[in-house]
Amino acid sequence: MISDYELFNQLCTKFGVCPPIEISNAMKIASSTGELRLPCLSIVVPVCEVIGRVLASSCKIKLVDLSDCMLVSKGLSKIFDALQQGTNITYLNLRGNNITGPIVSQLGYIFHHNNTLKCLYLEWNNLGTNIEDFENFCKGLCVNYNIEELDLRYNQITPRCAEFLSDVLKKNKSIKILNLAWNTLGVQGGQLLLNGMKENNSIIKMSLRGNCIPNEVIETIDNYTYKNRSRKIVSQINMMKDIEEASEAIFKENHEKLRNNSNVFVESEVSNVNKRSKEKHQMENHIRQSPKYDNTNLNSTSIVALNIFEKKNEKNESANFHSNTDIAVEEDNSKDSDLNRKISALNKILHDRTSFVDLLTDEISVKNTEIDSAKSLINQLHQKMNELKDKHENYVLEKTKEISNLIETQKINEENWKKMYKELEETHKTVVLKNKEWETKVNRYEREIHDNSVEIISLREKLINESQYYKNIIAQSRIKIHKVKKEFEEKENKHKLDLNVLKNTLKETTQALEECQAQLQKTRTELRDTLTNLSDVKSKLNDLEQINIKYNKLEDCLQKLKNEKTLLEDKFTDSQRSIASLKRQVNALQGELIEPQRRYDLLKEELNEEKNKTARLKQELTEERSRLKEQDVQIQKMNQQITILNSQINEIQLSHADDIRAREREHKHLKEIIANREQDLNDLKAREAQRAGQLYAAFSKYLNPMDATLIT
After folding, report:
1. Rounded distance, CA 142 to CA 167, Å?
2. What is the dihedral of CA 81, 83, 87, 93, to 10 degrees?
3. Is residue 19 a contact partner of residue 50, using CB atoms and an 8 Å limit?
4. How far apart are CA 379 and CA 633, in angstroms?
5. Which of 51, 162, 166, 445 could lock 196 by a disulfide, CB 3.0 to 4.6 Å apart?
6. What distance in Å separates the CA atoms of residue 106 and residue 109, rounded to the nearest whole number?
7. Interatomic CA distance for residues 51 and 82, integer angstroms
8. Distance between CA 705 and CA 119 in Å, rounded?
9. Distance from C-alpha of 197 to C-alpha of 221, rounded to nearest angstrom
10. φ, ψ (nearest 5 deg) of residue 92
11. Coil, strand, or helix at residue 480?
């Protein structure tokens, strides 16, 4: 017959598939051991098809491990088709293969047709993502009566899926171990599983860790599984009692038959002996009563007759004995054959019983080792609990110290912040007041500058009118002033050109101001990003001091401007005087007209400088306001962080207390389980001792009559 490895190679050559070396080696090992292990391998769809066909035709392979292979849905469907056709696989591991969608429903169809699978591991998949497919999966489980162990950890099973699982618990009577840890069943799912466990008598172990199920529900489910476990043990014990009673009844029946047969044989022999003795006495009496012989011949004749009679009787007895012995031997042979059969059956029963006793002793030894390991674990847990308590105490002390230090630092910081906040408020108030004063001063200066510009324009108009008037006067003396007029016109043209140049410069300055505003906005955003830490507060305070110094400098500048204004006023009076002198002296008009134009340019430049200074002051004021706002925001954030830290500390303390309580509960639960197991083991030991005594007594009873029969 072709081995599985040869069939695998033939199918690979037939389909033109080149399998990896790891898969071929695993198949070679599986053909001899019956265990196909392919964990953490990348398997292509054609190779999956070949593996499915090999599994469908194999009689040896009973264990298949495809964990963490991340198989494609097509490859999984090919393997599931083989399982659906019928295989000898009893153990299947499909951990970490991303099983979702229609593949889940295909697993349900496998449960309808497969009758060999007993252990199925589906950890780290996505069975619960599609509810309809999960429903088909659970319907297949309801119909299957062979699967005993099912692992569904990390499968995103929701409370809606728990409804179908409760139906499985109600209908399936073969599942003994069910693992549903680390899913999303929740309170509703736990209640549905509890309702299903009320009607289930087969599950002896169920894991529901990490499902957000209340502890009360988990404890009730554990109680149901414990009842099922104890019920199963009791049923096994009752079955063994029935077997023992049946074997004892068969043994008693055989023993009684042997006793009855031996009693019948003995009674027949005794009756034969009595008959012979009676016949002998009758012959002696007959000889004595006969008249033919006298007393002398009586003894000889009687002795000869008796001897002849005895010989005949002996012959008859021997013949009867031989016939009886032959019959008895035949009967004994038939009975011995029956007895041998029964003894062989009893020996088988005893052998099974001894094997069972050995198994029980092994289990008892295993249980004792488990108890010892549990005791060692309990001691380790005690040590760990003590260590954890010490660590917890140290941790609590450290945390209390840290909390006290944090509270002190918080108080100090709050005091510092309050002081800083008060100082900042005071500085803010002073800055606001100064801003208001500066704004009023700036407005006043702007008004004065506007008035001065209006006056200058009126003066200019007056000058132009006077110049025209003087031109008319000078026109009378064209000959003398013709040269002067040309020069004056040239100067006027130059003046116009200067005015145009000034207008262009004003436009350029306005554009530059707009660009400066855009750059200032960019710098504001950059400053908002950079000013995030508390350490910048000191630098900001230093900046505020520098700003105060700047403010003092600005006040000095303002005083200088006032002085310059007074000077300008003086100059303006001088210009008025010069205008009056111009009226008097026409010849000096040219020089005096140039001087006010220069003064006008200077005044414009000074006005532009004052406007730039006022704009800078406004920008600095806005920046200070934004800085103050950001400082307030940072202070609020710090307060929020302090409150969050306090809440986190409280939560840590509460969670630590809950962990300690949960560990104490687990410790109590372990103690109860160990006590129950010890009681069960003691009961089993006592029962096994009683059964061993009963078996020994029955075997001794059986051997005593056999020895008696052999002796007879």
Report:
1. 7
2. 140
3. yes
4. 56
5. 166
6. 5
7. 9
8. 51
9. 7
10. -135, 125
11. helix
Query: Are the beta carbons of 599 and 568 closer than 8 angstroms?
Result: no
DSSP state letters, 330-396: HHHHHHHHHHHHHHHHHHHHHHHHHHHHHHHHHHHHHHHHHHHHHHHHHHHHHHHHHHHHHHHHHHH
Q: 11-68: per-residue pLDDT in tens?
A: 999 988 888 899 999 999 999 999 999 999 989 999 999 999 999 888 889 999 999 9
Mean pLDDT for the chain? 77
Tokens, residue 397: 């002390």
Q: What share of the chain is helix, strand, coil (3-state, %, to 5)?
A: 80, 5, 15
Which pLDDT tens digit goes with each residue over 580-634? 666 676 665 656 667 667 777 777 787 788 778 777 878 887 887 788 788 778 7
Report pLDDT for 223.
93
Phi/psi-derived region of residue 156, left when phi > 0, alpha when psi is between -120 and 50, beta in every other case: left
Instruction: Please write the tens of the pLDDT for every residue from 284-334.
Output: 554 444 433 344 333 443 444 445 444 444 444 444 444 444 444 455 556
What is the DSSP secondary-structure string of 489-511?
HHHHHHHHHHHHHHHHHHHHHHH
Name the DSSP letter for residue 291. S
Token reading at 583: 């009226």
C-alpha–C-alpha distance, residues 357 and 346, integer Å: 15
Output the six-digit token pair for 129.
Answer: 């993502």
Contacts of 85 (CB under 8 A, 6+ apart): 56, 113
Handedness of CA 222, 225, 230, 233 (dihedral sign): negative
Tell me if the pTM is above 0.90: no
Q: Which residues pair with 149 in a beta bridge?
A: 119, 177
Is the CB of residue 205 less than 8 Å from the CB of residue 177? yes
Write the pLDDT tens digit of every residue in 131-175: 999 999 999 999 998 999 999 999 999 999 999 999 999 999 899
For the record, the structure tokens of 578 come out as 């010069």
CA 435, 437, 440, 443 dihedral sign is negative
First to last CA, the chain: 59
d(CA 128, CA 157): 4
pLDDT level of residue 477 (50, 70, 90 thresholds): low
Residues 114 and 83 sit within 8 Å (Cβ to Cβ): yes
Residue-level pLDDT at 132:
93
Amino acid at 482: H
> What is the C-alpha separation between 341 and 460, in angstroms, rounded?
151
Q: Which two tokens stand for residue 413?
A: 């910081």
Instruction: Identify whether the C-beta of residue 102 lies closer than 8 Å to the C-beta of residue 130.
Output: no
